[in-house]
User: Fold these one by one.
Assistant:
Number 1:
Amino acid sequence: MMSPAPPRPLPASSAQKPLLWLVSLAIFMQMLDSTIVNTALPAMARSLGESPLQMQSVVFSYALAVASFIPASGWIADRFGTRRTFLAAIVLFTLGSLACALSPTLQWLVASRVLQGIGGAMLLPVGRLAVMRSVPRDQFLSAMSFIAIPALIGPLLGPTMGGWLVEVWSWHWIFLINLPIGVAGFVAALRIMPDHYGQQKQRFDLAGYLMLAFGMIALSLALDGVSAINSAHALVLLLAVVGIAALAGYWLHAASTSNALFPLSLFKVISFRIGILGNLFSRIGSGAMPLLIPLLLQVGMGLSPMTAGMMMIPVALSGMAAKRAAVSLVERFGYRRILMINTVCVGLAMASFALINANQPLWLQLTQLAIFGAVNSMQFTVMNTVTLRDLDMHQASSGNSLLSMVMMLATGFGAATAGSLLAAFGSHLNAHGATAALHATFLCVGAITLSSTLVFWQLPENRPHPRAVEEVVE
């Protein structure tokens, strides 16, 4: 007598829908905050008595805090469960938002952004990990697609809402709106978030974490220190050297320990190895753009905060459309060809902002922003997919955390790079004004992005697995 067939799991769209909505809400809160901050930077600078071209520390501090704490997020979720970790992340992010709104100085604001970043470091990766462990493999594409579209509403609403809040009230409200969202997310997580634990209890790799975090912080501070005109160059060089030494020490440490945060066996998977390096170098340019575009629109072209925010809507709309098109394009042409061509398109789109000026017709400016949004979104989707697609289930936690760390680290590097380039060009092109410095910086970040094609060139010519293209939420 044949045994009865096991029950078929419910589709992700019905059985897992509350979880998917919860994770989407968390990502929405994080993405809304980041895009609102970029639009409000000039207003913050005026309120705090700072130069608008030297406000990259507000973006940089958050990204660096996230990147520094993400390495521990996977272990914390495995050790204490996804539910408790996710709840703690919401609390920290919400309290950090309140502290940002109450900040009287730039230094206080930067410290508050660090607290916010600690919560954000666990918010996105732990939510995505819960989905990866709750949704059957054959339903992974539909689940990730469900998350991706609601998550893009944050970037769509953020710039316009940020500009409106700055004009109607003040920049403090761009952080205060996180409070009701955080409370609602906490209440929902108490009922919805599953409590997944790691299959094996491992001791936390404290030595490896300290070396990795110190290396990232030192390199980031060295890069950010270049933007200070009167910075001590010896200190910048020292930070860069010890940062590289710390990362090299972690690499040797991970090769000789069994409980490393990010086992070197991950890099035996060629798609993961190339995807991680490609993400790092490609996202440096992409990480600079959210800082540079609002500055160009407000400082360079004299637009109001709300008008500048509305100008960013085509970027988000075209990005949403491109995420859907990425699946069919990769299925037809393969990962390598799409990444090679699209990386060139992204770099050229970034450099083209050097041509924008107030005398151009509005339709041309909006078209240029829409093209950049489309190719940049497609780049993120395909890069993330190729990075995680070939990992085994036991590699999912560490691989997912490493990808999230690299994404935020590159964002911080991008903001620091933009600040350094603006400071350098501002001192040399002082007679031509801030617009000339911004245009030169766009050319440089475009060139940085173009250089990442050398990484994707190493990717084998392959097509997606027959099961689907695994689109990974940004």
Number 2:
Amino acid sequence: MIHLSLIGIGTGNPDHVTLAAVRALNEADLILLPRKGDAKSDLVDLRRLLCETLLSDDSGARVVEFDLPRRSADGDYLGAVGDWHAAIARVWESLITGHLPEGGRVGMLIWGDPSLYDSSLRIAGRLDRAGRNVDVEVVPGITSLQVLTAEHRIPLNALAEPVQITTGRRLRERGWPEGAASVAVMLDSGGAFEALSPDGLHIWWGAYLGMDKQCLIEGPLSEAGPMIQARRAALREQHGWIMDIYLIARQPLL
């Protein structure tokens, strides 16, 4: 039996890691840390730091790093994602079998929370379908949405109004979601908000949330949009990668 803990670690700030996450880390026999290439070496560095900071001296956890397979940029998007997930599952299976041939407890450190635009649960499901006896535990974590609204000191929704969470791809292709008073946008490769008419829209943007290089911009979309695009390009050039998120609303949130 393999017990797999998908441990939400928030945005990489040790102060955002819950006591439940610390306990799950220390109970693990094996902790797997993915590497995403040199451009995003900061991400595995943060995971290493969390392990060094949060694992107790008497923890028996073995920390193993692995190279994450790359997703193909060609062809059908959903098909490419499915193939990518299958490749990651095969890597997980190989590592778990190699390091825990008799079974045990595995910990995976998940950015934010495993429930929100993260595919670890779907990949773990592939292990089950492959005949591996896997018991999955989810340890919730703080999301970038929570940090964004906290840093800007705003609620997520207008009073008594719905909010929709979507991706940059869908915002660019389909525009403003019908019936939404505010829209949170994740996984934007850059500037999907430019597909919207800026009239009456306000944006709250954040990059590297919770990290020491955190950057925030807010204002009317017509004014803040170009500022965000320029700052985003400069930060990506400086650090080699960027993770950002934003909230757009048609009416005041406070």
Number 3:
Amino acid sequence: MTAPRDELADELLVDVEDVPVAVPPALPAWPRWVLAVAMLVVACNLRPPLTSVGPVLNEIRAALPEWNTWVGFLTMVPVLCMGLAGPSAPGLARRWGAERVVLAGMAVLVAGLAVRGMATPWPLFLGTAVIGAAIGVVGVLLPGLVKRDFRDHGTVMTGLFTMCLCWGAAFAAGVMVPLTEMLGDHWAWSLAAWSVPALCATLIWAPMVPRRGSVPLVPPAPVRGLWRNPLAWQVTLFMGLQSSLAYAVFGWLAPILRDRGLDAAAAGWMVSFSVVLQLPAALVAPVLAGRARDQRGAVVVALACTLTGLLGCLYLPVDGLQLWAAAAVLGIGQGAAFSVALALIVLRSSDGHVAAQLSSMAQSVGYTVAAFCPMALGLLRDAAGSWDPAGPLFAAVAVAALVAGLGAGRKLTLCGDDHR
């Protein structure tokens, strides 16, 4: 055992070998595979509301010319609301049960998607904010459920969970333009159409809510010293900074490619192609990272691929296979980076209680940080009249993510034995 430390912020740090392994609680009502399927269906619906905007952003600008500058903030609003709503998730789970809060969050998501389809500015922004808040709460609780109910298969479930997030994002980005054309070029109708699969996911999750309470996901009080712990902040900043690059891609890569000369459908399919390639990376990366002595190597490889792909999409010629290769490298890098970020929440936590609160911290603060890059990219584009500032911005964010990730990837664990 390492020598005791004087600082409260360091009390939670222990070597991995010193963490006692708790016996995972039995699931309350359903076989484990049924809960896994329901959880993955929910995950499939947490990214289409975000990636469906970028492919039709130019059409939204054209339809709302007096709101032209503000429309660019549609890429930032949901991410910011995800960060602002995330801290409420553990308290809601303590009061109502995590499964019930996930159900309520999915119902709110359906309502927000429906409101966003009204095609007028205020419902569009209000619905987008509600969508972000709902995704923030649900997204915070799911990693804690993974740690609680799938402790012996945590990295595998993390990979599957991330793969479903990526699949949903890719599917929405790819079909958004054809869907809009099929609905008579009504972009608002195509945005609202994503409420249908979200409603189906809500109905599938509903039976997972136990009738008489649930196995606790979070303790009655916060984990002591978590918000003053350097390791917790490193996990949080890595989550936020790599997500900042991801949401810049979700919101702006299609407009960037369109401004570089691709038509709307081709730009949407290229974004979809990139996100599709996140699937195998998202499935494999956390498993390999979990088997390694630590996760620093995975962080370096994931961020190197991400930055290489981003710069390729910005600067390579648009009329050859090089741009598709850059999109492929980008997808592999971002799938690996996001899945490793989620895996770090699980791997750095000693139990489901710590995982739930570290997830809340990492995703609430992290997604608030993540809103920076899409917002800055839009403002820089309007100020410069081109995408030239995008490259330096992406490089700066990637370097900052690398610094945080190298700290978060160390072989240390946050111990949840000490609560207050």
